[in-house]
Amino acid sequence: MKVCVFTLGCKMNEVESASLMKGLEARGFEVTDKLSKADLYLLNTCAVTKEAERKSRQAVARMRKFNPKASVVVFGCAAERGGEKFAEKEGVTLVCGAQGKEKILQRLDETGIFREKDRSFSELPPPGQNRTRAYLRIQDGCDRFCSYCVIPYLRGRSRSRRAESVLKEALASPSKEIVLTGIDVSSYRDGETGLKELIGLLAAVPARIRLGSLEAGVVSAELLAAMKKAGNFCPHFHLSLQSGSDAVLKAMNRRYTRAEFLACCRMIYETFPDAAITTDIIAGFPTETEENFEESLSIIPEAGFARVHCFPFSPRPGTAAAKLKDLSPSVKRERMSRLTAAAEAAEKEYIAKFFGKERTVLFEEDGGYSENYIRVYAAGAEEGQLCRVRLKGYERDGASAEILEVL
Ligand code: SF4
Fold it and tell me: Which ligand 1 atom is the nearest neighbour of the CA of 213?
């Protein structure tokens, strides 16, 4: 990320900007004091004359000319005197006064501006080695800005891990199952390698692989064909729906319609007839009418969900949806209870389809998951065993099974 620290006014300002630049360099940023194309501009302003104030405001426009997408942070004397005049300018994301200069790096950290602008993926050591299941980070951040979600403000913009690094960690993992995780796995991209290509590379991994939560829009015939060809991907798709109503989806800034989501489910079942499609649905979004809510209920059997995670709407400060008038707690509670009942019925129906059929289950301490995400309990199963089993009937939150073979 390139940061431009542009300074107007006195020697004092220059000295302060120079120390700010040193702090930025120490954090690994490319820093310049020349007004040129950058990802983030820090403008140290001057208010010694009216003309100096005008020039300070004009500098914001000059910065935006170099990069209209860049954020501008304004500080110094003119920001202290007329902060509101800067705050209303497009692109200005933060105005600090003259007093706060020494704390500017800290303020930038707190407001998330560094994270927002930094698109490099932070490599972390793999989490503790586990012979059963490993979670492998492939992506972080999110650019989607759903109206109810605070994540893009907290975790910053989407960035992906290098494909070769993903493959290296997957090949070195002793686990029998690897779950590819990220905030927005669908947006995975390392140069020419998107999610579909990554799936092709991971075919070489001797573990079964499960994809983390996906957006419906990423599911294509090509992606499904890549999974099928790889042979080691579980037929389990967690597609976040959030609402079955087009009006609510629009208010949530979700970029698909009910019909598009259902078309995506059909495409999955054509390639993987036994697929588990799991999802999340929010009950009681502020604009949700009773009719809208009933559309969320009716899509559950229509999509054939294997599991639905239900959440009551909860306003997150700083998001667009938090400014909307919230529904009453009693309406949200009542909708949550109907949604949860519909979710439980769907899960039971999905599980029952596999009674008498064989599944492959990776057992943990107490039960395990089949490739299509049914929780399975079998007498004699040991932690870490991958077994071929036959499902018998309902047990607790899943199904009972007899072990046919330890793989
Ligand atoms: S809900 Fe998911 S896709 Fe939407 S903004 Fe939040 S993290 Fe991104």
Answer: 2
Are residues 318 and 193 part of one domain? yes
| 9 C-alpha to ligand 1 centroid (Å) | 43
Look at the alpha carbons of 12, 13, 17, 18 in this order and tell me if their dihedral is positive or negative. negative
Q: What is the CATH number of the domain that holds 368?
A: 2.40.50.140
State pTM to two decimals.
Answer: 0.72
Enclosing domain of residue 381: 358-406
Chain CA centroid to CA 45, Å: 37
Domain harbouring 7, CATH code: 3.40.50.12160
Q: Which of 115, 157, 183, 282 to mutate to test the pocket of ligand 1 (most atoms within 8 A of CB)?
A: 183
Structure confidence by residue, pLDDT tens digits, 323-361 = 999 999 999 999 999 999 999 999 999 999 999 999 999
Q: Which residues contact 350 (CB under 8 A, 6 or more apart)?
A: 276, 304, 305, 306, 307, 374
- Residue 81 Cα to ligand 1 middle (Å): 38
Q: Does the C-beta of 184 come closer than 6 Å to ligand 1?
A: yes
Q: What is the CA 26 to chain-centroid distance, rounded? A: 29
d(CA 66, CA 285) in angstroms, rounded, equals 40
Q: Kindly report, residue by residue over 25-50, the tens digit of the pLDDT.
A: 776 678 899 999 998 899 998 887 87
Q: 159 with 86, same domain? A: no
Cβ of 276 closer than 6 Å to ligand 1, yes or no, is no
Label each residue of 312-376 as H, E or C: ECCCCCCCCHHHCCCCCHHHHHHHHHHHHHHHHHHHHHHHHCCCCCEEEEEECCCCEEECCCCEE
Any atom of ligand 1 within 6 Å of the Cβ of 141: no
